[in-house]
Structure formats: structure tokens, C-alpha cells
Design goal:
The chain is mainly alpha-helical. It has one domain: Tetratricopeptide repeat domain (Serine Threonine Protein Phosphatase 5, Tetratricopeptide repeat), CATH 1.25.40. Helices cover 68% and strands 2% of the residues. It has 9 helices and 2 strands. Strands 1-2 form a two-stranded antiparallel ribbon. Helix 3 packs antiparallel against helix 4 and helix 4 runs antiparallel to helix 5. It starts with a helix and ends with a helix.
């Protein structure tokens, strides 16, 4: 009985995380919300399990791939994180968050040229619409213009640091 209650999708949750509510199956939608809540609460292993379950059931979109990447990133599993960030970018070439975290991985591996490419992609990217991104769990799961501009500034700062180190 407890397991059933855990995945019950209340109207309050549906209203609060409406951007994450995008499939016909309420169980799947609740799993997405639970996964992002686990990221928000820094329970990265649980989040990775939730995102993996979703992908195994063929529920794959850029936000789910990014969530998996972020979970593995914070668990210091660089290879898996890199793969998922790359897949998120392939699904949505305007996913500035996936570019940002992939660039940070490249920097940690000493691959400055690849990091520079990702950071430049963010700096030169044009904002055209909000990004559905569960990472912004407390901002209705939306990376809006303000978040985009902030990330562009961070990318510019990292680019200057890379140029300075050479």
C-alpha cells in the first residue's frame, strides 16, 4: 500500500511541476518529479536510478538525459555524466545547462579546447524560449531568460580563465 501512495500524483504536484508533467502515464510523470526532487535533495544515487528506470522504459527526452548526466556528475562518474550530457545536447542543441556541465567535465579532464567550444556555444547562443529543466525545481522547472543570462556570464568568466591559464 505504501508503494502505491509513493507514486500517487496529486493535483497539487501536477500544478507545481506542470513542466515536468508531459507524458500520458501518471506513474512516469511522478517518477520524473521524484527524480528531480532527489537531485534537489542531493540524493544523486536515487535520482540516477529514477532517470535510468525512465530511460529503460523508453521515456527519453533532453531533460531526462540531462538529469541522468547531472546525477552522475555529482556522483563523480564522469564517463556516464559526459555521455548523458552529450545525448541531451543532441536532443536539444540549445540546452545551455548540458553544455555548461559538459564544459566543466572537460575542464576537470584538462580538455581545455573542448571546454572552450562548449562555453563559446553558450556565450554565442541566442535565447529563444525557456528551457524545461528539472534542475530548477524551485523555479517551476524552467530555465528562463534570467537563468540563461546568468549562465552566459559564468561561461564568459570560465573562458577568460582558460585564456589566462595559457
Amino acid at each position: 500500500m505504501t508503494g502505491i501512495l509513493l507514486f500517487y500524483c496529486s493535483p497539487v504536484q501536477h500544478g507545481k511541476h506542470k513542466s515536468l508533467w508531459r507524458f500520458n502515464d501518471p506513474y512516469i510523470n511522478q517518477t520524473i518529479i521524484n527524480a528531480w526532487e532527489n537531485v534537489y535533495k542531493r540524493r544523486y544515487e536515487w535520482a540516477a536510478l529514477d532517470f535510468t528506470r525512465l530511460m529503460q522504459k523508453n521515456y527519453i527526452d533532453y531533460d531526462i538525459l540531462f538529469g541522468a548526466g547531472l546525477s552522475y556528475y555529482f556522483m563523480n562518474e564522469s564517463k556516464k555524466a559526459m555521455d548523458y550530457f552529450t545525448q541531451a545536447i543532441e536532443k536539444n542543441p540549445r540546452h545551455f545547462e548540458a553544455y555548461y556541465f559538459r564544459a566543466k567535465l572537460f575542464l576537470s579532464q584538462g580538455a581545455h579546447a573542448k571546454a572552450k567550444q562548449d562555453l563559446e556555444a553558450i556565450v554565442y547562443m541566442k535565447y529563444d524560449k525557456p528551457l524545461i529543466c528539472g534542475y530548477y525545481f524551485t523555479n517551476d522547472d524552467i530555465a528562463d531568460m534570467h537563468i540563461f543570462k546568468s549562465r552566459q556570464k559564468e561561461a564568459s568568466s570560465l573562458l577568460m580563465a582558460i585564456a589566462h591559464d595559457r
